[in-house]
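Blinded run. Sample ID left blank on purpose so nobody reads anything into the name before looking at the predicted structure. Input follows.
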Amino acid sequence: MLTGTYPSAPSIRWNGSHCHIARTTGPPSERVIGVPQLSAIVMMLLAKAAEERYQTTAGLEADLQRCLTGMGGAPFYRLFPLGVHDVSDVF
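Blinded prediction complete.
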């Protein structure tokens, strides 16, 4: 939705599942200018390894809220570290 295209478009030979597993996708900021932090959040959501993805919805929500707050103020392009509030209560 952010870029208007699929993260990895399947080719004629391979189906969509294989594309998701085998191919890495470029960040949305390569296709849409002005979304650096949202691009980083999307890439964290699309990470292949489970430990590199968000572990909690609270962590994702906190990053999206911080991104939304940054959009209203200046400068919008200020990046912040992702996953600071992404702490699982399960060991």
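Unblinding after everyone has recorded impressions. Residues 16-72 form one domain.
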